[in-house]
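Worked Example 4.2. Consider the chain below.
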Amino acid sequence: MTGKSLSERIGDLGHRLAIEAHAAWLAARDPRVPMLARILAIAVAAYALSPIDLIPDFIPVLGWLDDLVIVPLGLLAVRRLIPAALWAELHTTAEAASERPSSRVGMVLVLLLWAGLLYTVYWSVRTSPWH
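Applying the procedure from the previous section yields the following structure tokens:
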């Protein structure tokens, strides 16, 4: 029996989704991509690559459902808005990048961005006249 175990198949799915999210991020930065697709790609890639979720992952089942539904549907929408030849080029670039080590600096920048956003929201609520 040479089939993959469930954990290996889930790992492969996660790897494929990470490549698709990276391709969406590349699409968001490519001027050849239509503007609507670029905006949606930014939103999907930011959500997929961000450590912060709508529903935290420590909540059983529901914490994973948002990642299993929102990200693939968003990636599907982005993929349909981009011409096939251009998507294939972006996807190939993302696959090549997945072979390289990940960037800790990128992770820190994303975390700082989210922290700054949360602090801005906190500050605006604390200083609002309705508080």
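Residues 6-100 form one domain. The chain is about 75% helix and 0% strand. Compare this with Example 4.1 before moving on.
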